[in-house]
Design goal:
By secondary structure, this protein is mainly alpha-helical. 61% of the residues lie in helices and 6% in strands. Strands 1, 2, 3, 4, 5, 6, 7 and 8 form an 8-stranded mixed β-sheet that branches. α10 packs antiparallel against α22, α13 runs parallel beside α15 and α18 crosses α21. The longest helix is centred in the C-terminal third of the chain and has 32 residues.
Length: 723
Amino acid sequence: MFILPVIAYLLFLTMYFHKRRNVVESIAVAWLFITLYTWVIMEISSGFGILGTPVVLFFWSVLSVVLAGYVIRKNIGKAVLEYCKKEKKIHDFWQENRVNLTCMMLFCSMICLLSVLRGQNLIDNLYHRLPKIMHWIQDGKAGYFATVTPAEIQYTKLTEYMIAQIYLLKGSDRIINLVQAGAYVCSLGCLYGISRKIGASRKFAMLSAWIYCLTPMVIIEVFTAQTDVVAGAYLFIFIYILLDFVQVEKLSMSREEGLSAVYLSASVMFGYLTKPTVCFAMVVFFVWMCFVRIIRRDRIQVLLQYVVIGAVAAGVLFLPDILRTYQYVHMPNSQYVEDAAGAAAEKVEMTADSGEHEESADGPTVWVDMKNSVEIAMDTSGAGGDMTLPVVASSSSEVTEDQRVDNTSEVDRVASGILDPKEFIIVAIRNLAANATSRCFPKINDLIVRFVEKCESALNYEGGYRYFRVMLGENLGETSEPSPAIMYFLLAVWICVISRLSRIRKAQFVYLLLATIALIIQAGLMGYTWYRQRYLLGVMGILCPAFAVVVENISISVRARLNLAVAMTAVCSLGAANALSFEIPYTVFGFQGKEIHKYFIHDSDTELYYQLMLDYINEHGYRTAGMLGVVSYEYVLWQGIDELERLEHVGVNPVYFEAAKLEDKEFIPECIIEEIPGDFVLDEFIYIHEMPYICDWKATDKNGRNYAVLIPYAVYEEQNAVH
């Protein structure tokens, strides 16, 4: 059943191509349509609290049947085949690029196949992305819920909407990578179309697609449930549609132009709902379009019509999210907002004094260090001896260090970066330089490090928590994998343009300039995300068409230019091969060992403790469970507990997390799971929902991190009485 969205996409693409006779536009609009349908299903089912397999299956089955019926009734498939056979442009394109196209289709098929074989072992996926979806499915709606993992509700949700529906259509957690794989293929088509629109020939437009296709960071992201490739696809669709508004001589209003405005607005909002950072590049190109329209003096009435259409489309798509947020923040008894703000300020002050704050690579602060754990300290005796209940404190009144979350708004951090020119410049230099590093060339890395240090010294910069990171050999499977080829190609094309070795047209130069500015702005604003080069994925992609037109216009023979394009593709293929040399073994390794092994490829020591904990829970037949405090690999619990009926966070603290009021105080779990990086006292009670719980199982690693399962004290006494 999970294949239904793919069938619907292909059917709609065929219908749209039959009408418009444009492959790239069909790919882009079909992706927007499927995204919209996904969004509609989630918002409607969430609004009524009926999110589940029957509802999702009904929606996708109806759409597939309707589209298939229309295609069959109108003989669209036959008409499309006849058009492709007769149309000279399509025949010539295939003959001219048959080797290129064959190789690209084979490579993309390999990447897509590997992506659906890859286990979900990225910490982001196990910590907050996939658990978020599990909570939605359990609750029957995609709304807020009580958690001590803020990332589960803070981050945008559109990619998770798509993944959730694959789950509900009975796809495994390997199959969910189809979302990124689909966006990857869609992106290649859009980049080819952008290259053609800015003046590249067919052969050199293929170069732009190849460069992005072989970018290491892109390939690695396809193997994860991250959002960057999907966000990049919406950015490319936006620019592809925007170029029509830039290049047309005079704007007029018709049904087709009105739909283009809707597509443009939808690409912006879908990009924002996927990953807001792509909007930085969108703003740069949108300003270009506005400037062009002002220069060409379009009629005010027509411009206002476009503005209204775009605003209405954006408002409709954004309305459910803003209403959900408003309801969440302005519910009765919302004093927690002020409490949270005060707690955040106190935490920031404490952190500044201690100088020990460190953020994880892909989310909120988590202290997890299990790399050297090899021994187990087991204690299944519980508290032992005679005990009385009055030794207790409720866990909700005591907040451990790893429960504290940073409530500082990312918007505020972005604003501070913009207002501090020195900070902006250094952060941009650091991130662009880090993206130019490589595992293969340590000497070049040393030169880059010295360059960054000299820039900091010249600007007399003494930055705070941000730091410059070089990708080294031990950082395997890192989703911030650098892509040095893009950076060196960018340097080379600017040398060619400035030296007039490549004579590109004015519009092509403007595109190159804007794409470069977008890259710099994105890199400069990445201070709030630390060193995540994957946030540059979209802006690196929009540079690829500029590379194509610059290479094509170099003042050398056609054969020499084609050879240069082949050489650039070969350089990119080395980076792709290097990335795959790390990723393919992970895929193979993920099929070895026990079922949960695929989730712990990067942390095999912790796997032992989670396996022991799950064995204990399943042995006792617990079907409802609570999670107390931060659980680093929450998704493993969702997949590892047999016949799980309910799993959710309990004892959520309202001072450090605003959604505490969403906790179900009537929920009495059969067991509570705790993961504690420090001392753990066995003979203390913990009250959860006015029920005393006591530790019945515990394992401790060599670093002192504890894994514990607590059960109701009444159950514990019964077990002891039986024994």
